[in-house]
Design brief:
elongated, 2% helix, ARRD2 protein, four-stranded antiparallel beta sheet, Arrestin_domain-protein, Immunoglobulin-like, 43% strand, Arrestin-like_C, five-stranded mixed beta sheet, 1 helix, mainly beta, 247 residues, disordered C terminus
């Protein structure tokens, strides 16, 4: 029918009708996870007299704009932790770690410089590591399920007993991953940087710094662009390549 409700007769042949829809600005990024997904599609139906209804469906990808050029995401992140080693074979002493990164927000492909100091006051060598961790949270019927995965990691050299190791901007590159999903009620995707120290005979020393993976990259000179899709693309196959734990 036309806009005034009158029927239109289509002659035999090919006909094209353009449709446009204004998407809400609050849509979450398309996502495929173990316990849930965020998917979008458009459907079309063709009703014909005395015949079955023809249907068509086409999926499309949505990318939520996350601008890392905001004060909250440009703020440096830092922390410190220590652990007392007590092992049956007398590996005694304390291990401490302090770590800092320049900002909270990054985009895929960027390198995170890690500044850290690890003091090994035990009687055996310890091994420092750093990793980007992705945490998927699925919320349904009042319950939560989580899946933690290692996105990428690096391992430092062993630190001998009584020695200190300093990382002067140790590089950790972010691979192609989906952005953070923080505003969805049922699915959340969060990231963090974990700096850990393997200590013989006891549990690891873990220091966690929050990360946000955005879609609009850093603009050093304050320039802006309205085109998110030209700066960022989502690969929905990345989930299958991520190991599930830091070894």
């Amino acid at each position: 029918p036309t806009d005034n409700g009158e029927a239109t007769v289509l002659q035999a042949g090919k006909h094209e009708f353009p449709f446009t829809f204004q998407l809400p600005e609050t849509l979450a990024t398309s996502f495929e996870g173990k316990h849930g997904s965020v998917r979008y599609w458009v459907k079309a139906k063709l009703h014909r007299p005395w015949s079955t209804v023809k249907k068509a469906k086409k999926e499309f990808t949505v990318i939520e704009p996350i601008d890392i050029n905001t004060p909250a995401l440009l703020a440096p992140q830092a922390g410190a932790k220590e652990k007392l080693a007590r092992a049956w074979y007398c590996n005694r002493g304390q291990v401490s770690v302090t770590a800092k990164i320049d900002r909270k927000g990054y985009t895929p492909g960027e390198v995170i410089p890690i500044f850290a100091e690890i003091d090994n006051c035990t009687s055996r060598a310890v091994v420092p590591k750093a990793a980007i961790i992705q945490t998927q949270t699925f919320i349904a019927r009042g319950t939560k399920k989580q899946k933690k995965s290692v996105v990428t990691s690096i391992t430092g050299d062993p630190i001998p007993a009584g020695k200190r190791e300093v990382w002067h901007g140790r590089a950790l590159k972010i691979p192609p991953v989906g952005p953070s999903i923080l505003q969805c009620r049922i699915i959340q995707v969060e990231y963090s940087l974990k700096v850990c120290v393997d200590i013989p005979g006891t549990s690891k020393l873990l220091l966690e710094l929050p990360l946000v993976i955005g879609t609009i990259p850093l603009h050093p000179f304050g320039s802006r662009t309205s085109s998110v899709s030209s700066q960022y693309s989502v690969n929905l196959d990345w989930l299958s390549t991520i190991p599930e734990q830091l070894e």
